[in-house]
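As a warm-up, study this chain.
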Amino acid sequence: MTDTFLLDHRCKSYPLTAAPCRPADLGRRGWNVLADDLAYPLAVIRTSALAHNLAWMQDFANRKGVALAPHGKTTMSPELFGQQLQAGAWGLTFATVYQVAVGVEAGARRIIIANQVVSDADLDGLQALLQRHTDLRVWFLVDSLAQLRCIEDWATRRGATQRFDTLLEMGIPGQRTGCRTLEEAVALAQAMAQSPAVQLGGIECYEGGVARCDSEHDAREVTALVRRVTEVARHCDAQGLFADPDVLLTAGGSAVFDLVVPLLRTQGLSRPVLGVLRSGCYITHDHGNYQRFLALVEQREGLDASLRPALEVWTAVQSVPEPGLALLSGGRRDLSYDLEMPIPVRWARRGERTASASPAGWRVSALNDQHAYLRYDDAVNTAPAVGDRVALGISHPCTTFDKWRWLPLVDDHEAVTGAISTRF
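Now compare it with the structure written out below.
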């Protein structure tokens, strides 16, 4: 995918005066973020942290005896999909059929759609992908008889004979999608097993909605969900409702993924279990929400360290209109803000080529479309000045990636070594 993507003036923050180039050729330009070779704001991925995270999560899955199908909606980057698959991922996860098509182009041949598929256009598209790629398997979620009827009606109108691979979704009362009770789930599984349009491959759940960054609470609530899913799986197994030799059990967001491992290794069924972990944000991690959750994972797992933040957005100080306030050249168009404000993590004076940790008192209090409000203690000698550069860490990487068509890859000295593209 890298060779098909052209970087030029139409890409945000690519220099208007620079000749177009392919991402693979970008390292030859000799550009450096702190040399102001590219325009601000500029979202970058640190390659050392990226490589560490890819290896760490794959090793975690291997040690736990589960497969890894990272959620691709985090980055929607074909280049990063390729790295995840090369690192050993069993497959990829997506939320929409459009996203599945991007993953297929990147080489994925096992895909979970961790979402319901309902509409004619999406079912048409999924059928076309499966017919075009005979080595492709895609499982999507079903959580109601009403949805199953929609799929069967589509199959009747289209004259379709192929049965889609599906997973029954178990949900949590008050949370997102999924069956709420054992009785509801078993009745749906029975209908799925008898349906001419789908076949039941396993059970899916998502535990992230109950996580509060409190180990006692999170372990209790996730354990309760695991028990409910396990109970459904055993009922389905006892009735011979699963279609494949292996039962696929899948869970795992990016916050408390360690707590669902017991589900993914469920024993006591009449056939083997294939446990699939779907965490996605691990690839770049973050400086806020997931960093706090991962600190608890480290405690529970007895680890000294785990993932490293790899994603930053560099900005320039463009105005210091009053003491204690600096305006940075990055805002809602460029940065995540759905969970919390960006976090100043590093900075460099104008003209300097080495970055330092941001002073502890610096914080972003608000964002406009194109501005960040940096608050600081004016009495401290490390007050920012116009032309300085500030790197902002983010909380929840998904909603930063979707603001960029491309992101430079940088080494630990801020030298640009390559780039990745996104397909939102």
